[in-house]
Please model this.
Amino acid sequence: MEPNIHVAITRRVKPGFEDAFEKAIKRFFAETAELPGVLGAQLIRPIPGSSGNTYGILRSFAGENERDAFYRSNTFREWQRFVAPMVEDHYRRNSLHGLEAFFADPTVVTHPPRWKMAIATWLGVWPTVFIVSHILAPYLKPLPSWASTAGVTLLVVMALTWIVMPVLTKILRPWLRPKPVEYPAARNNP
Model:
């Protein structure tokens, strides 16, 4: 089974077009929700009150084929033409692979540093391998080593994907993504 594919997109909206862009992209999300292999989309707005004009979009697809078909479709090309007057020409689109998919956060466009992702992953993998291999040890003794390794790694990957990493990244969120530093308000000096 092919893993789900997540795509992070950033678009810079021209000043004065923010409301029109948001309404248009919500319509586009609704129009594309039923396309084959499209699993969802989220809009990430600039921080309220900031002067930022960069929007984030997180899209999920059932697999690479569905992602590629979506971006080659007439629906997407028509969207690009429609939205062109509202946005700057260039935009970024990055597929999330491997570790960063575990750490995908729809509220931010960047990911934690790789060293933090590696530590968090190790904290999930080590105890999961230890527990699974000890629970299965009596059942794996009669099997050849390649078969026992395949069984352990299959269960470990399943546990990491659906249980361990979602829980662990939620627990470690403050460390993975520390809150931004808040600076005191400037005082008026006479």
User: Anything to note?
Assistant: The domain at 5-102 is CATH 3.30.70.100 (Alpha-Beta Plaits). The chain has seven helices and four strands.
